[in-house]
Amino acid sequence: MEEEQFHAQPPAVYTSSMQSSRNERKSTTTERQRLFWKTAIVCVIVVATNVIGNYALARGLRQTGVIESWSPVPYIEAFVHLWVAVGVALMVVWLIARLALLTWADLSYVLVVTSFSYVLSAVAGVVGLRENVSWIHWLGICLITLGVALVARTSPHTTNNLESET
After folding, report:
1. What does pTM read for this prediction?
2. Where on the phi/psi map is residue 39: left (φ > 0), alpha (ψ -120 to 50), or beta?
3. Residue ranges per structural domain of the chain
4. Using alpha carbons only, what angle is made at residue 163 by residues 160 and 166, rounded to the nearest 5 degrees?
5. What is the pLDDT along the chain (166 residues), one digit of tens a residue?
6. Alpha-carbon distance 123 to 127, whole Å?
7. Is residue 85 packed enough to be buried (19+ CB in 10 Å), middle (13-18) or exposed (0-12)?
8. Is the Cα dihedral 134, 140, 143, 149 positive or negative?
């Protein structure tokens, strides 16, 4: 009879330890989810600003014509072209977002996952700029996509120290 009562009500120390362990697991899971969403959102910003920024630069510079000069003046004049100015502004946003991403995510993760911008830039070049892309380039683009898909399934942070991410 006494054994049944012992199993029905575990000691308070044991119960407290179990609750603490559950809270730690819940906290770690919440931190992982927060890290996942934060990383996903900033990766989308990095990729989008890179693709749109490079597209705008290419479109604007094609409209300004070839610049063959050692003088900085023609390059500075190109900045006043609307497409070039938009491209430069987006590339500044890209750099800031990428710097932020690198403060918490591993370089080996960031470089691979954000390389998806190469894939989308090729598509933007074909669709928006009427570029011709060879089959060997498409093969390379497929390999990049496969690499991105593989690495995106992993954690962006390989160390156990999550304290620096707050």
Report:
1. 0.75
2. alpha
3. 35-158
4. 130
5. 555 555 555 555 555 555 555 656 666 778 888 888 999 999 999 999 999 999 999 999 999 888 888 888 988 888 899 999 999 999 999 999 999 999 999 998 999 999 999 999 999 999 999 999 999 999 999 999 999 999 888 888 776 654 444 4
6. 6
7. middle
8. negative
